[in-house]
Protein: GtrA-like protein
Amino acid sequence: MSRQFLRFVIAGVIGFVVDAGALYLAMKAGAGPYVGRVISFLLAVFATWQINRRYTFDRQTDRSIWREWHEYLLAMAFGGVCNYAAYVVAIHMLPDASWTPLAAVAVGSIAGMGVNFLSAKLWVFRGARR
Structure:
């Protein structure tokens, strides 16, 4: 399980880069830090799903890819609630600076990681061999 968790963390780091990059792009396009975060979170979930289904867990071939995506999105939404709550708290507590959204995304990502790993392992990719 430790190897699997390490792969999950690596996927999460890549997801963090996608999340933070998309957030800054969304904010530059006019979305605020809250709407931008919803957009960036969805993009990060898609990116981590692609990585986790191929490298962290063995994809179960008896389910449709659409069902797997919907289950993964729902599972990540549970961790996403923890993630977003921590993000909002961090936005309010940190100084108003250009690096604040990035730091808040990091705080949120760490807050949701454990919930996300367990829901992916025990529900979405249950029975994976890795």
